[in-house]
Design goal:
By secondary structure, the protein is mainly β. It has one domain: YVTN repeat-like/Quinoprotein amine dehydrogenase (Methylamine Dehydrogenase, Chain H). It contains no helices and eleven strands. It has a four-stranded antiparallel β-sheet, with no helix packed on it. It has a four-stranded antiparallel β-sheet with strand order 5-6-7-8, with no helix packed on it. A hairpin with an 8-residue loop joins strand 3 and strand 4. The two termini are about 30 Å apart.
């Protein structure tokens, strides 16, 4: 389970993500008018071990799509969902800041063991360390 970042000017996060034993992740709304309604479901190739949200800024051409507007402090910031799977795969998906839809999934094999995710600060910015047989650091270099 992971709760998304609190956007600037708001008092609560918009999203909650759950990694479930049926090999899916579900993005739920935390908005008062649609509390805990399922916004998006993503099927996974294996069971999820850990999940987290990560806000990255700047133009990330590898993420694709248009930048979000007006939710975070910069219109260039994007919200990513990272899922560590039991089979050693790290899955990174783009989450729409407005609708919560999950798109543009990318996979990276980190080893044969389950991937554990940890949020950290790297140069005063959010980052995620993914640990398996190999380690991986997800961060914005801008």
């Amino acid at each position: 389970m992971a709760i998304g970042a609190v956007p600037e000017g708001r008092t609560r996060s918009k999203f909650l993500v759950l990694g479930l034993a049926d090999s899916t992740v579900r993005n739920l709304s935390l908005e008062p008018e649609s509390q805990l309604q399922c916004i998006a479901i993503q099927a996974l190739p294996a069971l999820p071990e850990s999940v987290c949200f990560l806000v990255l800024g700047g133009d990330d051409e590898s993420a694709g799509g248009a930048p979000s507007q007006g939710l975070f402090s910069s219109s260039q910031e994007r919200l990513y969902l990272l899922v560590g799977l039991e089979n050693g795969v790290l899955l990174r998906s783009l989450v729409d800041n407005i609708t919560g839809q999950i798109t543009d999934s990318r996979q990276q094999l980190l080893g044969a063991r389950a991937v554990k995710l940890t949020l950290i600060k790297q140069k005063n910015a959010q980052a995620v360390v993914a640990l398996s047989n190999k380690s991986h650091l997800c961060y914005s270099h801008l």
